[in-house]
Amino acid sequence: MGRxxxxxxxxxxxxxxxxxxxxxxxxxxxxAYELSVLCDAEVALIIxxxxxxxxxxxxxxxxxxxxxxxxxxxxxxxxxxxxxxxxWYQEVSKLKAKYESLQRTQRHxxxxxxxxxxxxxxxxxxxxxxxxxxxxxxRKTQIxxxxxxxxxxxxxxxxxxxxxxxxxxxxxxxxxxxxxxxxRAIPCPWNPSxxxxxxxxxxxxQPSNPMEIESEPVLQIGYHHYNLGEGTSSVPRRMAVESxxxxxxxx
Length: 251
Description:
mainly alpha
């Protein structure tokens, strides 16, 4: 039969109490040791008997474990700062390792420091370079096609503008030619060579010699009329001309 359940209460018999303490103490110390070994834990065990005797176990130094316990329990702010510092230190270490790995990969892509690489690593590097080259060529071809399409679009726009300008110029030329034909169809009244052959403006022809003006019959009072045709030499020619000119208004 199995052991019965032990009632948890103070053992009144002194001898039995001492025996139970010895057995349980050794078992507790053994369990603390096993815990520290199996789980890689820092264990510290302190036992005082009813007589005041000290029993202890520490997987590490008991003093260091107690100091650590005091920092965790009595200085929580310092403990949080320490944990944060450790976290940042680990993060910096990870970033530094990643940065070194990226630098090494960049040197390999540039063809540097290829000595330590194995054949398999060199094959992977070659595949990466071929893939990058194919992508670069594909992107270059795409950019060139886009530029050609843009140039074709501009060419079509310029062609349309040229057609519109040609149409506009032809319309302007047709309008100018129509106006010119209309102007040539209008007769000019001052042109003597016009088709009608008539002139609406009267032309007064003056004789080249003022002496050729015909004398008109007038009423003369107070002076003698000289006949210029009889050859009278005493009257100057100027007076004869003036008398003939003023005959029209002396009446």
